[in-house]
Amino acid sequence: MARVLNMIRPAKQFCFPNRRTWLKALHGVMIPLFIWFLIVTPSDVLPFGPAAFQAHSLLALVFVTLVLIWYADYLRRGLAGRPGPKLSPWGRRLHRALHVTLIWGLFGVALTGFLLGLTSDRLLKAGGILPFAPPLDFKAANTIIGTVHIYEYYLVAAIAAVHAGFHIWRHYVLRDNALRIMAPKRWHRML
After folding, report:
1. DSSP readout, 93-134?
2. Nearest residue to 159 (alpha-carbon basis) of 114, 108, 115
3. Which 3 state secondary structure label does DSSP give 16?
4. pTM of the prediction?
5. Alpha-carbon distance 86 to 158, whole Å?
6. Nearest CA to 38 among 30, 46, 47?
7. What values do phi and psi take at 130, rounded to 5?
């Protein structure tokens, strides 16, 4: 019997990739989506019909889901990145401030999006599938929250641009390979 048990090999257990690997993948998906929503608004896709609006809404659902996964990971384990030894004290403070502001800012955008659905006059479904808030029909609040949502997103975009500029500066001026840290390995030879 013991011989038979030794012959049976346990199945390989599934294990998640390490944190840096899945954060690279998260960045790789979120950056194009972030740019998409910066350029294309719901009013831009409405003329193309309900299917185009549905696709835009589905992309928003994917984006918000990724934002919430990133935010939950941040709350559970803190920042993944470390400032690096070549950064001066002001650079270390800026590094942390930019990362924390981006994570909280994206969460704020997701929250105001939820509040838009909550104050709407009709039930909104993310991606046409997921009803995300019961409509309370608060027109004035909906208008204010909509304005906050739009300006908040553009503010986060400005912070993301400063963030990208900071890491590009680190990579080329300090030569600390800051871009390689979050880029896939196949791109390393280009950096």
Report:
1. HHHHHHHHHHHHHHHHHHHHHHHHHHTSSS-EEETTTEEEE-
2. 108
3. coil
4. 0.83
5. 25
6. 30
7. -105, 105
Average pLDDT of every residue of the chain:
87
3-state SS, residue 2: helix
Give the pLDDT score at 140. Answer: 96
Could you tell me the two tokens for 63? 């984006």
Contacts of 184 (CB under 8 A, 6+ apart): 24, 28
Q: Which residues contact 34 (CB under 8 A, 6 or more apart)?
A: 63, 157, 160
Tell me the two tokens of residue 31: 């950056």
C-alpha distances (whole Å) from 64 to each of 38, 115, 132 are 14, 13, 12
> What's the confidence (pLDDT) of residue 3?
59
